[in-house]
Amino acid sequence: IVLTGGDDRLWKTWGFPDGNILLTGEGHTDWLSGCCFRPSGTQLVTSSGDTTVRIWDLSRRGCILTLRGHSRAVRGCSWHSCGDFVASASMDSTSKIWDVNSERCRYTLRGHEASVNSIEFLPFSSTVLTSSADKTLSLWDVRTVSRL
């Protein structure tokens, strides 16, 4: 199964080798910039130009949570390997760590001087890697909200 998102505001799961569309999700009001399966495979996260991050339940075939807090387009998203946290990177020069269980932002990472274009949790750790249009990469310890 492959997951895609695009300018049409939709995410799609595709089955292979046939290449048929298995599921389609709609709800964002602008382009999708990122999408990622939860480690358990039961949910996915999407990020969008509409400034939101959304959690989707594949069995319910719909959005179960919309996370708001960025002031500009969200450029990327990532699940933590435990499945309880989602990270987002935004054109507002911040990244956020979201607690999916409490449905709130746990931390806001500040320090880049331009759009944060990607974010990724390092596997089985509390470290996040961000890349920015300010031409820097940063490693963050999300327990202390500090750069490493």
TrEMBL record:
Keywords: Repeat, WD repeat
Pfam families attached to this UniProt entry: WD40 (PF00400)
WD repeat residue intervals: 25-66, 67-108, 109-148
The UniProt record lists the keyword Hydrolase: no
GO cellular component: axonemal central apparatus
GO BP terms in the entry: axoneme assembly
Listed name of the protein: SPG16 protein
Organism of derivation: Hippolais icterina
